[in-house]
Design brief:
Layout: H1 3-18, H2 22-34, H3 36-58, H4 62-67, H5 69-91, H6 107-119, H7 123-131, H8 143-171, H9 178-201
């Protein structure tokens, strides 16, 4: 692959990551509620989840994914239920204390939640298998090209979703008022539950 192909892949990935969706919305409201750092760790988890399916697509393991369909279904439902549970806890959280470490999830927990959002969505395999052939023939992939694609997509995803974190950070200024904080807290819970329902229905 030449530089222009990688540039096209990066641009297409950036457009994809900035498109409205549950993953972006989750990062946005998390950054608005807990700040850039918390949203960024959530984003890292989402990127890891997305790259997990990218690697599957690159190695043309769609047949294996089909064989493991029942297992993937249980994984998807388990992740969806956990996200709904987290959303419910957030929605019913009565006391909102900003910049309180006890209120925020740890970086590891944020990464795990982010991974669940994308890592329990097997449809990403189908997306990548239809998206990647626009730039490279999967059957002619080499380990070097595969590594370059993973790095290109991964860095672009992280860069794009970091912009979403910055947008959420600006919304955080509204959190100085208790009513605004409670509203965003509830919106955050609804978004997380919505993401869980969306994954369960996919």
């Amino acid at each position: 692959m030449d530089i222009s192909t990688f540039a096209s892949l990066a641009l297409a990935t950036l457009v994809f990551v900035l498109s409205p969706g549950p993953a972006n919305l989750a990062v946005l409201v998390t950054s608005a509620r807990d700040g850039f750092r918390s949203g960024f760790f959530l984003a890292i988890g989402e990127v890891i989840g997305a790259l997990f399916y990218l690697v599957i697509a690159l190695f043309s393991l769609s047949a294996l994914a089909h064989v493991l369909g029942p297992v993937m279904t249980y994984i998807k439902l388990g992740g969806a239920l956990y996200l709904i549970y987290l959303g419910y806890k957030q929605f019913t959280h009565k006391t909102v204390v900003m910049n309180n470490p006890d209120h925020k999830r740890t970086p590891i927990k944020q990464i795990m939640v982010g991974f669940l959002i994308n890592g329990t969505n097997p449809k990403l395999v189908v997306f990548y298998l239809s998206f990647l052939p626009l730039f490279v023939e999967l059957e002619n992939l080499t380990p070097l090209i595969s590594t370059q694609i993973v790095l290109t997509v991964g860095l672009t995803l992280l860069s794009g979703i970091s912009l979403v974190c910055l947008m959420g950070q600006q919304l955080k200024k509204l959190m100085v008022h208790t009513k605004n904080a409670q509203r965003i807290n509830r919106i955050s819970g609804l978004v997380m539950m919505g993401v869980g329902v969306s994954i369960a229905r996919s």
